[in-house]
Amino acid sequence: RKEVEQDPGPFNVPEGATVAFNCTYSNSASQSFFWYRQDCRKEPKLLMSVYSSGNEDGRFTAQLNRASQYISLLIRDSKLSDSATYLCVFLSSNTGKLIFGQGTTLQVKP
Amino acid sequence: DVKVTQSSRYLVKRTGEKVFLECVQDMDHENMFWYRQDPGLGLRLIYFSYDVKMKEKGDIPEGYSVSREKKERFSLILESASTNQTSMYLCASCVLNTGELFFGEGSRLTVL
Q: A109 in helix, strand or coil?
């Protein structure tokens, strides 16, 4: 089983829609979780960390479900500028390394 | 703002050539990383370094070496490039392994 799995998509949604991505991980010892955003032909950038209690940043909500070993990212009121690839990332407590998912592509259409 | 600069955005090399990819960061970060990114495989760690002259193998170090002679500079070396090393190479740095990596813009290497 891969250490982290994401549905690559693409997710095609209209402007204003709510969209959610999940990401599952196999290492139960994983400590910290993050969502990165990568625009086409650009480098990844940290979008937000994922806290155990769930956290929100404007239209973005991140949640962690340790029992089922997945994290999620919810985007409300999608904008055209949200079109990008979203990478889930976790910090392995075993190795101290960051493990990246392959990313989920979102296309927001007018 | 943190700046991570990669020397070349696009390179085309021939099989067997030696390739140097340079990365410089301006924020005095201890940790530096080299990843490659391929469709369907995501980012994979090649090598990383926690200090000057220190290097550790990542998940896919075969065919690569690195050099960290100065804190701000981390170089990736392909001793003899092969076609399966055609990829996007991303350099990154951070202060502590907290999860926030700062990436360079990437170097797209094509090996013919």
A: strand
Question: Using alpha carbons only, what angle is made at residue A20 by residues A14 and A22, rounded to the nearest 5 degrees?
Answer: 145
The answer to whether B40 contacts A8, with C-beta atoms less than 8 Å apart, is: yes
| Cross-chain CB nearest to A44 (options B97, B98, B103) | B103
Cα gap B100→B93, rounded to integer Å:
9
Show the tokens assigned to A43: 């480098």
C-alpha span between B22 and B85 (Å, rounded): 16
Supply B87's token pair.
């990829």
* Pairwise CA distance, residues B78 & A95, whole Å: 25
Measured in angstroms, the CA of B16 and the nearest CA of chain A are apart by 27
Residue A58: CB partners within 8 Å, gap ≥ 6?
A: none
Q: Which residues in A lie closer than 8 A to residue B99 (C-beta atoms)? A: 32, 34, 46, 49, 89, 91, 98
Whether residue A5 is predicted with pLDDT greater than 70 in this model: the reply is yes
Chain A residue numbers touching B41 (CB-CB < 8 A): 102
State the maximum Cα–Cα separation within chain A, in Å, rounded to a whole number: 44
Tens digits of residue pLDDT in A56-78:
999 999 999 999 999 999 999 99
Provide the terminal-to-terminal Cα distance of chain A, rounded to the nearest Å: 38
Low-confidence ranges of chain B (pLDDT < 50): none
Report how far Cα B102 is from the mean position of its chain's Cα atoms. Answer: 12
Beta strands in A26-103 (DSSP E): 32-38, 44-50, 55-57, 60-65, 70-75, 84-91, 98-100
